[in-house]
């Protein structure tokens, strides 16, 4: 059996990806599709952790823009990610994948507290770990959570699951002439504001030499293809890597 290119990965799922075309709430068909793809990828032997966003339920920035205290709005966003994590756990468990939800905010009845060594041990035992509640701090996005957790658990790569097939110089949904990048340096992402992830997350990846692959989640089988080393999407890393 062909070996995967990566041994340990973090899959970053936005809340909007779980909402499907509607843009709000959780679409069951999308959950099942992601769960099937993760189970298929796990069969290669790769260790998988997920970081889920909460934008399909609540966005801290939106609440703040409406006059809500920013920290309060961000904590509400963290709780939204826990809801998505539990939904994702349910779909994965029904698919036969053993999972653990680990929350940066303690809530013992529904999730384990995040402990780095325990997370690594779960992954070594073949469990899918779902990181919820962001970093546990306001003012940080789930992109930053993905970069931070990737550094902590020594993940080989961050897979950014999107609804487009890579990074473009402008919005491909609005501009048919938008140019897709096959490869980018971290500094390109930071200097050009390409929307791969926020600047804090991108800087953390650059400082710790964690590559990022942006790919299309809606195309079934893409998670496994990326893990096996197929050249799809956009690769972000150092020029000589």
Description:
- It is built from 9 helices and 11 strands.
- The protein has helices spanning 15-19, 28-42, 60-65, 70-94, 116-124, 142-153, 186-192, 199-207, 222-227, and strands at residues 8-13, 47-52, 99-103, 112-113, 128-132, 157-162, 167-168, 180-181, 183-184, 212-216, 234-236.
- α2 crosses α4 and α7 (186-192) runs antiparallel to α8 (199-207).
- The radius of gyration is 17 Å and the shape is globular.
- What value does the average pLDDT take? 92
H and E order? EHHEHHEEHEHEEEEHHEHE
Q: Number of DSSP strands?
A: 11
Q: Give the helix tally.
A: 9
Helix content: 25-40%
Structurally, the number of domains stands at 1
Calculate Rg over CA atoms. 17 Å
CA(first)-CA(last) distance: 26 Å
CATH superfamily: Acetylglutamate kinase-like
Biggest sheet statistics: 9 strands, mixed
CATH topology: Carbamate kinase
- Assembly state (oligomeric): single chain
Summary?
By secondary structure, the protein is an alpha/beta fold. It has helices at 15-19, 28-42, 60-65, 70-94, 116-124, 142-153, 186-192, 199-207, 222-227; strands at residues 8-13, 47-52, 99-103, 112-113, 128-132, 157-162, 167-168, 180-181, 183-184, 212-216, 234-236.
